[in-house]
Amino acid sequence: MNTQPIAHPIAHAANRPNHPAVIMAGSGKQQTYGELDQSANRFAQLLRGRGLAANDAFAVLLENRIEYFTLVWGSQRAGTLLVPISTRLTAPEIAYILNDSGAKLLITSPAFDTVMTDIRKECPDLEVLTTGSGGADGFDSALTSHPAEPIADQRAGATMLYSSGTTGRPKGIRPAPPEDPNPQAMIPFLGLATMGAGMPADGSMIYLSPAPLYHAAPLAWCGAAQRLGATLVVLEKFEPEAALAAIEKYKITDSQWVPTHFVRFLKLDPEIRTKYDLSSHKRALHAAAPCPVPIKQEMIEWWGPIVNEYYAGSEGIGMTMIGAKDWLTHPGSVGRSIHGTLHVCGADGEEVGANEDGLIYFENTLLPTYHNDPEKTADAMHPKGWMTLGDIGHVDPDGFLFLTDRKSHMIISGGVNIYPQEIENLLITHDKVMDAAVIGAPCPDLGEKVVAVVQPINVAEAGDDLEAELREFLAPELARIKMPKLFDFRPELPREANGKLYKRELRDEYEAKAAS
Length: 516
Fold this sequence. Notes:
The chain is α/β, with parallel strands linked by helices and 516 residues long. It contains 17 helices and 26 strands. The N terminus is likely disordered.
C-alpha cells in the first residue's frame, strides 16, 4: 500500500482509512478518514440529487458537531458554495444571509428549532434538512439513502463566508474561482500552513480546534489540518479548563486561538493552570484580534516560545505571521507579510513612511468580491487594485506590521482621533476585569465621548469604587482626552465565541439612548 502522504482526505482514506479524522472532545464521538470519505461522497450525491450543481450555494446552521466535516468535504467534491452561518444570529439576520447567498438548501440541527420557526416563515420555499432528526426532513436518513461512491463530475468547491456583522449587515465574501478545479489540487493556504505555521505534513499532527466551526479561521485551519492527515480534536464549546484537559488527554501538537481565549486562561486559578501536562503542545497559533502585549508575554512565559500570531481576514487577501522569538523583539507586532504585499496608505491614498499609521492594504493576484454589493467591494479597493480589511496600522523599519485599530471603531472626540484598542488593551490587564469594550457615544459638546463597557470578574464589585480604581489604573498611561467619560459595568459583553466583539450593538444602544 502507498503510504506516501498526499494532501487531501481522499488520499488519506485510501492510505490510512482507520486513522481518526476527527474526535469531538466532549462526547468522544469519532470519525475515521475512511468513514469521512464515504459520508462526504454520500453528501455530494445528496447535493446532486437535490438539484445543486457546481457554484450553487447551500447554508449550514450548526453548532460544533462531527457532521460539519461531512458537509465541508462533500461540498469540496461537488463544486458547491458552502455558506456557514453564525449560531449567534437572529432569525431575520439568518434569513438575510439565506436570501442574499441564494442558498438552495439549509442543513441545521434540533438546537435551532426555535429560531427555525421564524426562518421557515421568512424563507418558506427553502429546503431544510435537520441532523439528529427523523421524519421527512431528517438529514441522517437522507444522507444514508445515497451511495458512497464519488459523483461523476467531481470538482473543487468553495466556502462563501459572511462577515460577522460587527459594523452593519454581514457582507458575503465571494471567493475567486479556484485555479485548479480538481478537488485534490494543492491549494495556496496549505503552503501557509506548512511553511508559515510549521504544521507537519507527515500525518502526525493532532490539532485542537476550540472555536466555532462556522467562523473563517477554525474552518480554514481544520481544513488544512485534515488535508495534511491530522486528527482533529474539536471542542463543542470553549471552556478554559476543558481546553487544557484536552491538550493533555489527546496529546495535542497544534492549536489555534483568539486573544479572548488567552485572557480566560490567564484568569484561571494558578493551581488549575499548572494542573495539566501540556508538553505535547508544539505550535499554538492565534489571531482574530490584536493581543494585548502583557497577555501575550504571559502566554509565552507559560507555554514557551510556541505562541505564534498571524493577521488575515475572511477575504483571504493576505496574511502576516510572527513567531514568538521575533515577537519578543518586536512586541505587539503581527509580523511580516507571508501572503500578498503590504501597503499602508494615508487619507490621500499615498503610501506613508515607516512607523506612520495608515489604512492597511494587501496587493494580491486573486481578490474576492462582496456578494451582491459592488459598492462595498469598491470601498475596499485602492485605485491601484489593492484591497483593505479596514484596519489601521503601521510598518516598522524592519517590515513588521503593527495594528492600531479598525477604521470603523475610531472615536472622534473634540476633533481628536481616539483608537479604542489602546484603552481596551490596558483595561483587560487589570486583575478585576474579565472583558472590556470601548466605544464612542453621542455627545453634544464633543461629538463623541469615550465609554468603557466593562465585564468585571466579580459582578458584585461593579460600582463607584471599581470605577475609581480603573481610572487610577489608566491615568498614568492615557492622555486625558482618551480617559473614558463613562464606565458601564455589565455581566457579559456581546462577543462572538470566535473573539469578535459586536461593538455595533453597544453603539446602537447608546445612540438610541441619546435619541430618546
